[in-house]
Amino acid sequence: MSQKVLLNATEITIILNRLACQLIETHLDFSNTVLVGLQPRGIYVAKRLAALLTEEYGIKNLQLGYLDITFFRDDFRRGDKVLNASKNEMEVAVEDKKVVLIDDVLYTGRSIRAALTAIQSYGRPSEIELLTLIDRRFSRHLPIQPNYRGRQVDVIKNEKVIVSWKEVDGKDVIYMVNK
Amino acid sequence: MSQLSVKHLLGIKYLQPADIELIFETADHFKEVINRTIKKVPSLRDVTIANLFFENSTRTKLSFELAQKRLSADVINFSVGQSSVKKGETLIDTVNNILSMKVDMVVMRHPNPGASVFLANNVNSCIINAGDGTHEHPTQALLDTYSIRERLGDVAGKKVVIVGDILHSRVALSNIFALQKLGAEVKVCGPKSLLPKHIEAVGVGIETDLRKALNWCDVANMLRVQNERMDASYFPSTREYSQQFGIDMPLLDSLDKQIVIMHPGPINRGVEITSDVADSDHAIILDQVENGVAIRMAVMYLLASKIQ
What pTM did the predictor assign? Predict the structure, then answer.
């Protein structure tokens, strides 16, 4: 199994800062915006961005939720894997809000399709946008594209992108492994 | 652990403690789902489930059906009253006929103990036991222990007394197994005539004095007196039963500590528990009903993922 570093800690920090600024450009004071991190791994991107926005850019009353899409996936009973759910923390109201879905890696787009359905059970957002840290080019199964992307990468099918975070995995790094 | 060790839910007896934990964790997620604005998920949209009730039921049937609908499964219902069973069809024939209509899962209640095990051995489908005679009622035990976990934080180390008609109760047996697997201590309490012989062999204590039992326990699960299953007189009168084995407010207030009161329903108000007890903060009877839907969603979700 070979490994190649795609982004190191400094690059991740720079990218997160850029994404935070791009969000501010569109959402200004975030009064009508809800950030929604997708379980299980998108929540770390969401947490980092929320911390940056609040601490570095002085955004107040940022609304943040975590959405689990397990029960909305389209591959239930279609693989050997049993789908185990993670916790939903959607105490924020999404009705008539601008929702930004946040995930770490955009690959086939199927998770995002599931998230678009899942978010509806909490209300009808006025708009939904997508932010992903890594965008795997040329691998989409569905017509879904991010509004904000950290880095676009070309990764072939038997390669996997692993995003590791300091707070859970020990260090900030994104690498590609060949399975 | 990410999947169940069993293909059917026939009884708590066949489950590992880790299976029960997995069902609880999954039920936590479903409990959140059923409190959303839109209480439905599409997980089981390509699964068809038959509810076969060869015996009357209100809340179990409603609860299963609601759980199935919340999971987007297709549901067909069968009640023995309007069926060909009256014309002499055997159980296996009835079920195989239903299965040839491409049904993936069968939820069955039957008056004969062991009916669901028999079915699982003889037909090719996923079977969920919704109560078989005086044998087991696994989803009830799961929702009871889940409700204890919710109220008291944990089941392990808790003392639970099951009061009443243990002899005719499938809820009692399933509860005993579930509580023991999760590390609780169990006693049964009731008139001697309603306690099965050799019940101590499954590792439960026996108490015939209700006050002593209540002073010992953290949770009292009050079972219904099942008049319909009684072929003889097991106690002199309902009045005498309720005086000795019924809970009222003065009795609860006179205990050294606050205990949790459970009841699997339907309540005979004034027999096992009085109305003021059933409606008090001690009782978690309606929480049990709500949790029943979440638990049944979890069970069907986890079992459906194992259907080939």
Answer: 0.89
